[in-house]
C-alpha cells in the first residue's frame, strides 16, 4: 500500500470505511451522493422531527402518553446533528477523506503506527455501534409502546394502523440518523487523536537511542504542526457542541425541576435518553482531547528526565573509574529496577507508558550529545507545549476542571432558583 496519495481510489484501505459512510448516508464523494446525503439530512434531521412534534405529539393524550419534553428532545438532537453534519460535509469537501484522516501523512510514519492506526480505523465503527445500539433499542421499545398503546390516532395515510407504522418507523429512523451522525464525528475525532498518540509514543523512543538533537526537534515540530491542524479543524465543532449540549442540559434541568413537574419514566424517559446520548458524545471529545494533550506534554517530562540522567551520568564518568566510591555511586545513582518492574507496574496501571514512565534511560541514549544541546532542547519543550487547543485555550485536565466548576456553579444557581436549595 502507498500512503503518500492524497486522492482515494475505489479499493484502497478506506474502502470498507467509505461503504459505512454510504450506509449512513453521509458519503459525499460524488455530486449524486452529496445530493442524496443532504436530502436525507433535511428529511430525517429537520422535516421528520418537526412533523413529529407539531403533528404527532398528541397534546391531548392521557397522562402516560403526553410528551411535555418532546420539544427539548427534538431541538437538542436536531441541532447537534446539524452541527455534526455541516462540519463533516465541510471537512470532507475541503480536504478529502484521506487527507482529513491523515492517511496521506502515514508515509512518514513507522510500520507500527500504520498498522495500529489502520486497525483503529476498522474498529471505529464498532465503537459507534457500541454507543448507539443500546440507546437505539431503548428508543425503539419506547416508540413501539407509544404507538401500539393507541397514543396516536391520526390516519394521515387513510388507515390508523398503517399510519402508526409509518410514523413510528420515521421517528425511529430520524432518532438513529441524528445520533449516528453526532457519534460519527466524535469517533472520527477520537481516531485522529489516536494517531497522534501513536506518533508521540513512537517519538518517545528517540530518547532511548543516541539521536541527533536536530532530528528530534524537526520531528517534534512536525507533530506540533499536525496538532495545530487538528485544533483548527475541530475547534468550532468542539466549542459549539459544548455550548449546545450545555444549553440542552440546563433546559432539561429547568423543565424537570419546575413545581409539579411529572418525572415518570413515560414522560421523562426520552429526555433522559437524549441527555445521556449527548453527554456520552461530549465525553468522547473531551477525553480524546485531554488525553492527547497529556501525552504531548509528557514529552517535556521525558526530555527533562533524559537530560537529568545524562547530566548525572557525565559527572559520574568524570570521576576516577578506579575509585571504589565512584563505582558505588554509579550503581546507586542508576539502580537496576528490572527486579521490581512487575510489582511497580501493578500499581502504575494504565497511567504509565513509553511516553510517561519512571524508568531510567540507558546511558547510550545521550553519550554523544553535549550539555548545551540537551539544555536547549529541554528549554524548547518547556516553552512550546503541544496539545489540542480551542481558539488558543489548551484542552488539558486543568481546563476540564474549569469547565466542571463553571457548570456546577450554573447548576447550583439554577437549582436555587427552581427548588430553593
TrEMBL record:
Pfam families: DUF3537. Coiled coil: none annotated. The chain crosses the membrane at residues 32-51, 71-92, 127-148, 175-193, 234-256, 268-286, 398-416. Residues 335-354 are annotated as: Disordered. Keywords: Membrane, Transmembrane, Transmembrane helix. Residues 344-354 have a biased composition (Acidic residues). This is Extracellular ligand-gated ion channel. It comes from Opuntia streptacantha (Prickly pear cactus).
Amino acid at each position: 500500500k502507498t500512503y503518500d496519495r492524497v486522492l482515494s481510489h475505489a479499493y484502497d484501505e478506506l474502502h470498507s470505511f467509505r461503504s459505512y459512510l454510504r450506509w449512513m448516508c453521509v458519503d459525499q464523494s460524488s455530486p449524486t451522493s452529496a445530493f442524496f446525503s443532504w436530502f436525507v439530512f433535511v428529511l430525517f434531521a429537520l422535516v421528520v422531527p418537526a412533523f413529529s412534534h407539531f403533528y404527532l405529539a398528541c397534546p391531548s393524550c392521557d397522562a402516560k402518553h403526553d410528551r411535555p419534553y418532546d420539544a427539548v428532545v427534538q431541538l437538542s438532537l436536531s441541532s447537534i446533528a446539524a452541527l455534526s453534519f455541516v462540519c463533516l460535509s465541510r471537512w470532507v469537501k475541503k480536504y478529502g477523506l484521506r487527507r482529513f484522516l491523515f492517511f496521506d501523512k502515514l508515509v512518514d510514519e513507522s510500520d507500527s503506527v500504520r498498522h495500529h492506526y489502520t486497525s483503529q480505523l476498522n474498529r471505529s465503527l464498532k465503537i459507534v455501534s457500541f454507543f448507539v445500539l443500546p440507546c437505539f433499542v431503548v428508543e425503539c421499545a419506547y416508540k413501539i409502546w407509544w404507538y401500539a398503546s393507541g397514543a396516536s390516532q391520526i390516519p394521515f395515510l387513510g388507515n390508523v394502523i398503517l399510519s402508526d407504522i409509518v410514523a413510528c418507523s420515521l421517528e425511529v429512523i430520524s432518532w438513529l440518523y441524528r445520533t449516528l451522525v453526532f457519534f460519527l464525528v466524535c469517533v472520527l475525532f477520537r481516531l485522529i487523536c489516536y494517531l497522534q498518540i501513536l506518533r508521540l509514543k513512537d517519538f518517545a523512543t528517540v530518547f532511548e537511542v543516541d539521536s541527533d538533537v536536530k532530528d528530534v526537534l524537526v520531528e517534534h515540530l512536525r507533530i506540533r504542526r499536525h496538532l495545530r491542524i487538528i485544533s483548527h479543524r475541530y475547534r468550532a465543532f468542539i466549542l459549539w457542541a459544548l455550548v449546545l449540549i450545555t444549553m440542552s442540559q440546563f433546559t432539561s434541568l429547568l423543565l424537570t425541576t419546575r413545581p409539579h413537574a411529572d418525572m415518570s419514566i413515560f414522560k421523562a424517559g426520552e429526555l433522559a435518553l437524549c441527555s445521556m446520548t449527548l453527554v456520552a458524545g461530549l465525553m468522547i471529545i473531551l477525553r480524546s482531547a485531554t488525553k492527547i494533550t497529556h501525552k504531548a506534554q509528557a514529552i517535556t517530562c521525558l526530555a527533562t528526565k533524559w537530560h537529568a540522567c545524562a547530566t548525572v551520568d557525565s559527572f559520574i564518568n568524570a570521576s576516577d573509574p578506579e575509585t571504589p566510591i565512584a563505582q558505588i555511586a554509579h550503581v546507586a545513582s542508576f539502580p537496576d529496577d528490572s527486579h521490581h518492574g512487575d510489582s511497580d507496574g501493578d500499581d502504575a496501571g494504565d497511567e504509565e507508558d513509553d511516553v510517561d514512565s519512571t524508568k531510567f534511560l540507558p546511558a547510550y541514549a545521550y553519550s554523544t550529545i553535549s550539555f548545551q544541546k540537551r539544555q536547549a532542547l529541554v528549554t524548547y519543550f518547556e516553552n512550546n507545549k503541544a496539545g489540542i487547543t480551542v481558539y488558543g485555550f489548551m484542552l488539558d485536565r486543568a481546563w476540564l476542571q474549569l469547565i466542571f466548576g463553571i457548570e456546577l456553579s450554573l447548576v447550583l444557581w439554577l437549582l436555587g432558583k427552581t427548588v430553593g436549595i
